[in-house]
Input
Amino acid sequence: MNLSKETILNSDLHADFLDLINEAPSVTVAKNIEDLVNLSVGGEDELSQEVTYELPNGEFKKEAIVHRVKNGIAANYTEAYMRRRDPKCMVIADDFPTDKTKFDDRFDYDFEELRKETFDWLKTQDLGLFYFNAGKAGMGYKAVAVIPANAGFFGLGLALLQGIVNPDELDENFEPTAFIYTAPPFRHTHFDGKQVVVHNRQPDNYEMFSYNLYPGPSAKKGVYGMLIGQGEEEGWVTAHCSSVQVKTPYDNIVTFMHEGASGGGKSEMLQQPHRLADGRLLLGDNLYKDDKRYLDLAQTCDLMPVADDMALCHPSLQRDDGKLGLEDAEEGWFVRVDHIKEYGTDPSLEKMTAVPPKPLLFLNIQSVPGGRAMIWDHTMDEPGVPCPNPRVILPRDIVPNIVEEPVQVEIRSIGMRTPPCTQEEPNYGIVGIMHVLPPALAWLWRLVAPRGHANPSIIQTQGISSEGVGSYWPFATGKKVKQANLLLEQIKNTPKVQYILTPNQTIGAWKVGFMSQWVTREYLARKGNANFSDKQIMPARCSVLGYALKHMTFEGRTIPEWMLRVELQREVQEEGYDAGAEILIEFFHRMLKKFMSPNLDDLGKQIIECCLDNGTVEDYEKLMHN
Output
């Protein structure tokens, strides 16, 4: 709806924001999600809109095609490149401490020039505007987003992810300290068509400029960067994780936190295991011969989701009980559905998205105006090649059994995408179905944060690469060693947390998808929070993998030993395993050397030196006990 510019807010706001609002031809102030749904298609009676911008040379660039559908809004980008996050999109425009690329270093001119151009362009546009809280009250920023009105779907994504505050209900003291500005055509006029998001941290406010319309780098991870920056100043972490309370058939509840790079299984941790038509679980499918292994599990645990991707580990949430307190940092979840390839794959998610109680936003999902977007109808990047990053944004309040209160984490896992490994073609896919990590080694895994094999969420890099400290480093604006110290302090302060590692996609010569993670969750929930004994675990053949399980049996079902210790697979054997271990250890050494700084915590230096000296699991245990 349109409001007069004078009614937007009567407070001493950021002067450039007020000038922009006063000079723009029109400003539509969205009060709720429905306003943004209508803005997405150009009006409450409209079914579709093409998001197009005229460049200074007279050329028109079509960014997206947006449809109103029965279950919300479906937006499809006209370029395959825009359907996933570019990992090089972030630049820093200010002079505060950072290890990230500075704007003037990358582009060879001062950002203030572009900032002025951006405001000048926005002043010629019909605009949309809404207020929201980045994070939670007392743990984040009071914020406002300004978008071109025809980019309403982008605003809708931001509001679904972060929430929206009705301006009629703002208290008198609500004064935004964070500002998001969106100017899509600058991608073409200034950045050779690339995604660029500029963070401009100032003493009294935080500006973020999004020069593209894929919400991943800005509406999602850009806001995440704001929270990471605040935590860096105040001494706390916004973890890159999902979290779930798992209730066993015997009514025991165990709280999990699952971290990892994009594609590492965070969303999957909140899903039930995918079953075959006959009800069995496909544990693994051998990639080199006709051999499948199944698991009969009559009853799985109940899942009570807490967080999907970002969790506030704020000091106010800690209870000094040895566990880690956290709560969701978001109001909605950016769920990737590349694994939903046909009807019936995940009935719960399919039902939730097909007939939702409120409108959703679908990205990279095929649609027709007035139809129904279905999460298995993935947009094609090219004929016969579906987009690997189809998404739906789910408001967390429509998720069944959602946990609204902060929780205390008992088991903290990290996920890693692993490639096939054989004796003939060794690779780092040597991780068994789960490994137990000593706390010191768990910290190292959070420093190297492997992005891993066949990542669908971002533009692909070759081989094993790192997502950076905490696996949230691509979104952070500050100093990586400071983040390393914060994570180490967090682990030291939570001695009752257990740490595990789970692979996904492949275990040696076996394709497993996310089944390894689901089976591990079922097993550990039934086992409870009791520590593993020497009879249950043994040092892994590769020291950075901590402990391997000697056996895994639950509900009368036994997991094959070669799924626990990959060197036992006939296709791999010790020779293939050791060659894969060399790749993994070289990666660790290469990544960890970057943290050896005078500012690193002394214990952290000792742990890294232990790894560089090829220390054993026992060496890591001596450095840090839980």
